[in-house]
Fold each of these.
Amino acid sequence: MLPDINKELQALRETDRFRSTKQIESAQETRIRIDDRDLILFCSNNYLGLANHPTLKGAAVEAIHRYGTSSVASALISGYMAPHAELETCMAKFLTTEASVVFPTGYTANLGVMTALLGPDDIIFSDQLNHRSIIDGCRLSRAKVEIYSHGDTDHLHSKLQNAKNYRRRLIVTDGVFSMDGDIAPLPELVSLAQEFQTILMVDDAHGTGVLGANGRGTFEHFGLSSDAIDIHMTSGSKALGASGGFISGRSDLIDLIRNRSASYIYTTAMPPDACASTTASLDLISNTPAIRQNLWHNIETIREGLQKLGFDVGNTQTQIIPIIIGDDKKTIAISTELYERGIYLYGIRPPTVPEGQSRLRLSVMATHTKEDIQYLLNTMAEVQKTFT
């Protein structure tokens, strides 16, 4: 029996923290269909607009015809197929690392690498605003965990000074923070990792494909060599418009993960069609810089437009633009009003963000048109008058 479930659900409803799904009846484009209504999508991670791209779909269809619809086994048994090997090679080449390993999702990749490398004799230094998958990876590793203030390298330095008697020390950070859109101070983190002989791991799920001259992510954005980062984690399901989670780095690191990571060993490998579409995406991103250029033009237009209207967009530096409202109820009311006006922009509330920091998490796509953006800004100006 689970007698308290309804009480918990009622409490969520009363505090405006009840969540439910909306069924999208179309592809993940800038225009979507929900409940027989057309809406402009402004809360997808499909940053480069590739999730419905004919090149990715063609690669997936071809892989299905050749390899079927599932790998139907873990990678170490019989689930590792030619598309997996090709994707790992392409991801390592794209990130300029020695090797890469593919997981079904970014979440399982973070769990897998942290539990494979760390244990009770180790310590992790984790940014205060890291993604939940990192938090769960820290907990499952059984290592001691020290949280440093968001982006505060002085605070991190003081913690590193007091943590020398551990087998392994790991600094872990998002590259681009998924709810705030700001970028980790990577050069300073690299310096600290070198000074204290500490492993550095960057979850660049929201940076890959977006940041850097070639879209390689946060390390390229700062002009760093990929070797400056010990563990590169990224996701195929954001800017790449595809699927999967990836750990890249030295070959010996990847060999150890294959042998020690429970979320790699004990789960069915990613479907071959998903591997093929992700590989196609890497090729497209490498050879079509105009897509990324369009994204950055849209980012700047929307961010500047919202700031001129007086909205608080925090310290965003990227395609993730938080419109910070504060109050849960007001956040949901604004999200609902936007929905009624033809804009799908989801309201984010605690525990995903800190108390008093509820927001609309606006994410920009390269394929948003000038008309889409103007309609968004005009509508936000009208909504602002209604809710002030």
Amino acid sequence: MEAHLTEWLNLGIRWLHMITGIAWIGASFYFVWLENNLNRSNPREGLSGDLWAIHGGGIYHLEKYKLAPPKMPENLHWFKWEAYFTWMSGVALLMVVYYLNPSLYLIKPGVELAPAAAIAIGAGSLLAGWIVYDLLCDSPLGKKPALLGLVLFVLVIGAAWGFSQIFSGRGAYIHVGALIGTIMVGNVFRIIMPAQRALVKAIENNTTPDPLLPAKGLLRSRHNNYFTLPVLFIMISNHFPSTYGSPYNWQILAGIAIVAVLIRHYFNTRHDSHKFAWTLPAGALGMICLAFVTAPNYKASTAPLANVAPTPQAEAIGAPKDAPQLNKVEEVPASKPAAAEAAGAPKLDKVVSVIHERCTVCHSAKPSSPMFSAAPAGVMFDTAQEMQANAARIQAQAVASQIMPLGNMTQMTQEERDLIGAWIAQGARID
């Protein structure tokens, strides 16, 4: 029952996070588009531009004032709760998924780190990240936006590298996303909203607004705009183990972030010219290169196999004691194909035995792991036919990226991974 309740808690919070995230990022995209598409030719007095639009069967006329209307409206909508609820639901999701089970989802297999210490590092990094970012923006570096952006990028990728040394691939990625999200909501709460309140108050009191606050708000708003696409990728990254499960996971995240920022820059500037149109094909080429870099090493699966015998299942499900090093499978030299052939196809009963012992504690119609009330993603390995149907998933997550079993809680050995990989490489036959 506890696993079932946790699953539905995860679902509810994740859904809320997605809904509020769409509202926040959608509003950001819309106002950037609106600003870039205002008609600024001969605006009427007091306006900096206007725009006519049609949507949902209605025609809208939008106007932007240079400062404010002669009289402030009674109802002025403030775009803030979208940001606040996105961050709060994200932190709640971080706690439910990663901090309730740090040994499984958060700590990297083979890393000797107490769960409490891992949680403290993860949570503390969010606060530290905001403080460092805020100090940099208020420093003389803040007057050089391009250089500041480069410094921030290097620091975020440095954080990704640091997280990847102690956290699982998923844990590292999600903490980079949480770090960026904390910076974004900090900008809204600490800089953008106070600047807007000061502007409205000055207009109501008929005083001159402080120009420094709007300038700071504009800089932070621009940062939030460029952060959006990398954050969106991180939100969906847990579905793609070839990224976070790769030994180059933090470099892959850096590459995707560069692609995302370049593409965002084109859409931010295309109203002036299309001189940054080259970023679109460059981004596509970058994604193709990343797909090539993360391609699984199938040669390793044809290596000669040791006589793997099933070992007793781990007595308890928990953090691994002696987890194998990831991605250390040696390739078979091209000059020795006969040796691989001599090994022959692995016996099906051994493959089935290993998968039953190491994988079906979770991926079963009736999981024995207390962490799950149903098979994750509906993937089950109770029969040889189900194993064959999911061979590609097994290859990607247990052989190539080695992110499964979670936290290597059943202590799958490298020899067992090689055995499964060879069976898949030779057609995953069950006859």
Amino acid sequence: MENERVILVTGGAGFIGSHLVRQLLRHTNAQVVNLDLLTYAGNLASLADIETNPRYHFRQANISEPAALQSIFAEFQPSTVVHLAAESHVDRSIAGPDTFIETNVIGTYHLLQVTRERFETLDAFQQDRFRFIHISTDEIFGSLDLGAPKFNEHARYQPRSPYSASKAAADHFVRAWRETFGLPTIVAVCSNNFGPNQHLEKLIPKSILHAVHGRPIPIYGDGQNIRDWLYVVESAAALLLVCERGQVGETYLIGGEQELTNLELVTRICQLMDEIYPASNNPAMADLVQAGMSYANLIQFVEDRKGHDFRYALDCRLTKNQLGWRASSNFDQQLKETVAWYVQQIRVNSPWIQRALASLNP
């Protein structure tokens, strides 16, 4: 594929990755390579609509295996690498940190090294156009108090879970490879994403799944922890702009500026469930309906997560000013569409939901 633009996306069968792959195919003329190990969180059904696109290529591989990476780099010769592959569930990182260190730290190191090998073979013109874009998380900055200023791109790293610590370490490696070896890197830090194709272990899809099945909807602690929510399609659009316009060495914060407590969010989901799939029409809710109750009565507070960060929020002014991106004000409609999508997937037992359900307890 010499002389063609090739964008390699690691983790392209994951949640954000699948939406980014779709946007890259829609809005660029590039060849798009999806490199994914297909762990429990990877779901090729998320890309069923584009799998026959002649510019789309899938390779199953582990970023922790240099030989596999070298083979894919030799085959496709990417000019942009967008690194999304990561273990990302905090609860799993608490139960077993090893996988997070192996994938998020060691895997990122091997990817940087193979990318560096590729970069050093390029001429000056090609090197000037080359980019390595690393996707991080707002959790690297730690926890904010209520009313405290939002995190900006200069915020101190204070990770408080094995997951966020592994992502913080990866960020530092990415910056070090730019400073030491001249690899043209960019970091993009995302807030909590939501939307179709997110794994069922995450808060929003898990709440919907439990509601459809009439099971208790668990919320950690008292439900007052605050997150900044961003619709995944808008997140992918921001990452597309980072690919197209991002400046080497910059850190772009990508947040929805939609702060809600977990209790507020789940309560909204229950209200939308009442509208989209009324409890009176849901056989799994028959006993509650008979008792005069509905989905909100499924909410159940459970023991708080260890080291549970209280609040995240991102100051996105740099991203807005440099890239011309901002989150829309359509959160309510986006959440409604998200709830409707999951309800439909669950009720028809789609291929996507079958794969997601089978992966819940790997």
